[in-house]
Amino acid sequence: MIELLAPVGDFECLTTAIEAGCDAVYFGIQDFNMRARAKNFKLSDLAKIKKICGKVKRYLTLNTIIYDNELKEVEKIIKRAKPYIDAVICSDVSVMLLCKKYKVPFHISTQCSISNSATALFYKKLGAKRVVLARELNLKQIEKITKVIPVEIFVHGAMCVAVSGRCFTSQFLYNQSANRGKCLQACRRPYTVKDNQGNSLRITNHHLLSAKDLCALPFIEKIKKAGVCSFKIEGRNREPEYIDTVVRSYRKAIDNKLSDKEIKEIVVELKKVYNKGFSSGFLFKSPTSDDFSKVEHSNATHSKMFIGKVTHYYGRIGVALVKVNNGGLILKDDILVMGKTTPLIRCQIESMEIENKEVKRVKKGQEVGIKLPLCRKGDEVYKIIKR
Fold first, then answer.
1. Which among 166, 2, 32, 179 is positioned nearest to 95, based on CA atoms?
2. Domain shared by 283 and 308, yes or no
3. Beta bridge partners of 314
4. Contact between 17 and 25 (Cβ < 8 Å)
5. Per the domain annotation, does 296 fall within a domain?
6. Residue 192's beta-bridge partner residues?
7. Fewer CB near the terminus (10 Å): N or C of the chain?
8. Are 271 and 334 in a shared domain?
9. Do 338 and 13 touch, CB atoms closer than 8 A?
10. 110 and 249 share one domain
11. What is the total count of domains within the chain?
12. Beta-strand pair 87-90/106-108
């Protein structure tokens, strides 16, 4: 059975990922994880996370490099986390040894750049239950390593121009180390080339360091046959609508053999949420100039605009009262509803009422009743806008 592993950066994304159909989630607390700029969780949240997850597995990321003065703190985290997690994802040997000491299963992070079966065997002998392979491998190389140890690979999300994310650009430019989870993603920016005489040249695609996102969905059947045990989605900094769309898409692809038409339709859906264009990464060949993005930010075909908040939910009739604080709504608008304990709701407005009278349009400042699945007071409402 192939595991679908989803990234979660907060409780909204956690509930959304579970509702969308993931088998496992991975997340960080504020310290010692490679997404230090994500919202992240607190150690005190782990019991709540376990309760929300139920049978969904939970992997804690402690995957930065560790210094001597931090060892006691890391040890304390592992001891406290043990009852609430299924494994730790780590890259520093000190964390691996502490996991062994406290009998906590551990997986080797992609930060270790595991690229061959001998290295995979080394970590297996050290006690690792799974390895997350370097992104720079093709499918044949991956298949060989799966015969040594259970293997997890990324199937969707951001790619780094540096080898498995081992980049020092952010450190050199801003003293913010990517290897400590603080990357400022200078690679995503447009660049102009200058010579030593001050002459400048703007390159045709001036995002010359910004890789397109990996999207393995079009060739998911080939990856299924490679023996990989876990399909991992990148994106602990992403919004709930991204998590919802990507998890649902890969859930469908894992559970079914899709037709070419279905694959094309799902890729269209994936393009609606955050992406920098799609690439096959290294899975079949080395990337070319076509695998570099042409945009600094998102290439998504859709975006969302904040509209207002739910002020009351009438459970008996399934209607939410929404105060419109920004913009407005029109009948048939596509909307998103999200909250800390409400799995993401995506729907089209079929009817609206103000004081028991049907309306087709709502303006800023008005309060309107909309028929919606279960949501809660304080949940935020967004309108989906086609770019």
1. 32
2. no
3. 319
4. yes
5. no
6. 202
7. N
8. no
9. no
10. yes
11. 2
12. parallel
In terms of residue numbers, what domain contains 345? 302-386
CB atoms within 10 A of CB 63: 28
Sheet of 345-348, strands arranged across: 345-348, 334-338, 380-386, 302-314, 319-324, 367-371, 352-354, 357-359
What whole-number distance in Å separates Cα of residue 377 and Cα of residue 193? 52
How far is Cα 97 from Cα 112, in angstroms, rounded to an integer?
Answer: 15
Q: Extract the tokens encoding 384.
A: 């989906």
The tokens describing 111, both together, are 């930060």
CA distance 202 to 182: 29
On whether residue 335 sits in a domain, the answer given is yes
CA dihedral 72, 167, 210, 223 (to 10 degrees): -70
Residue 225 lies in a domain: yes
Are 364 and 256 contained in the same domain? Answer: no
Distance, CA of 239 to CA of 8 (rounded, Å): 9
**Residue 167: predicted pLDDT:** 76
Residue 108 CA to residue 133 CA, distance in Å, equals 8
Tell me which H or E stretch contains 353: strand 352-354
Tell me, yes or no, whether 188 and 65 share the same domain.
yes
For the domain that residue 253 is a member of, what is the CATH number?
3.20.20.70
Q: What averages of pLDDT result for each successive group of 10 residues across the chain (387 residues)?
A: 96 95 95 76 96 97 94 97 98 97 97 95 98 95 98 93 72 78 77 84 72 94 96 94 97 96 97 94 88 83 96 95 96 94 92 94 96 94 94
Give alpha helix (H) positions in 271-316: none
> Do 253 and 218 share a structural domain?
yes
> Do residues 286 and 367 both lie within one domain?
no
Largest CA distance in the chain: 74
pTM, entire model: 0.90
